[in-house]
Amino acid sequence: MFNLVLFGPPGSGKGTQSINITQSYGLQHISTGDLLRSEVSGQTPLGIEAKKYMDQGLLVPDEVVIGMISSLIDQHPDARGFNFDGFPRTRAQAEALDALLQFKQTQIHLVLSLEVPQEELTRRMLGRAATSGRSDDNAEVIARRIVEYKEKTFPVAQYYDEQGKLAVIKGDLSIDDTFHALSKEIDRHLLPVS
Ligand code: AMP
Asked: SS3 for 4?
């Protein structure tokens, strides 16, 4: 198995690049943002609860997200590996993910962190808000999401860096050039474990 985390601030291109990676490497894509949005549109009890946080630019509570991931991993017993997108976003989530994977006798092999300058992130998110109709991308909510990222999510990079698993990739190139840089790093790690 090869398990990858695509890490980065909101607007860094994780979603777009995860789709490319998933298609090229045959991994199972798990995006907690997409999963939560589908719960919201289905008006499930989980979705109704999660929406309160998402609309404000706040992180959904750890136990909700960890429960969702746990059942998703169980639904894909034959996956070649997972590409986690937008998860883990807190240290508690990272520790829970390690425990879940350890139970399956596997681990996170690589964490790719997309680095994009702040002005470019805001510009991209405002552009996305204009076209996608996402409820969480107006200027006030974007500002809150950035604070949540800095306070709660950024420390996750350090957690993986301490384990020697973090690689930082410039995410403000074109989509193709960024994908090329991500692929180079994945290939370097994939060969020894496949
Ligand atoms: P995303 O599409 O990944 O940017 O996520 C959109 C929103 O969903 C975030 O602003 C959070 O409110 C929520 N969310 C997504 N993933 C997580 C997570 N791993 N932990 C907590 N909240 C999350």
From this structure: strand
| Res 59 pLDDT > 90 | yes
Which residues have any ligand 1 atom within 6 Å of their CB?
10, 32-33, 36, 53-54, 57-60, 65, 86-87, 89, 93, 136, 145
The Cα 6–Cα 22 span in angstroms is 11
DSSP state of 194: -
Question: Does residue 71 sit in helix, strand or coil?
Answer: helix
Rounded to the nearest angstrom, the distance between the alpha carbon of 185 and the centre of ligand 1 is 25
Condensed to tens digits (0 to 9), the pLDDT of residues 68-98 reads 999 899 899 899 999 999 999 999 999 999 9
pLDDT in tens, 121-157: 888 888 877 776 666 677 888 889 999 999 999 999 9
φ, ψ at 27 (rounded to 5°): -90, 160
In the block, residue with structure tokens 């996402």: 134
Contact at 8 Å (CB) between 112 and 185?
yes
Q: Which of 2, 8, 34, 26 is nearest to 178 (CA)?
A: 8
